[in-house]
What does this fold into?
Amino acid sequence: MNQETILQNKIIVALCERGCFAVNHTVGDFYTKYGGRVSVGNPGESDIWGHRPHDGKAFYVEVKMPGEKPRKDQLDFIEAMKNSGAIAGWCTSIPEALNIVFEGGN
It folds into this structure.
């Protein structure tokens, strides 16, 4: 498991411990054991999707390792989700993710 996936999982646990519903949202191409390709999601969609416990408001969090930044399609998705009334942002740590979801940061 790569370091970004480990960080995503830790963020999901932290959000769930605070009552949120949060899941990993995988995007990409995968191959069946028979060699068939399966495409999942759309490029740019955030890594974590969920909703808050106290108001049910949807959130989308893109996770990056420290020093990395989101691609343009990821920033476009975040902006589209914000424009629809959802909470969205990108982070490089658990505290940043919690700030996005509970304080509206980023």
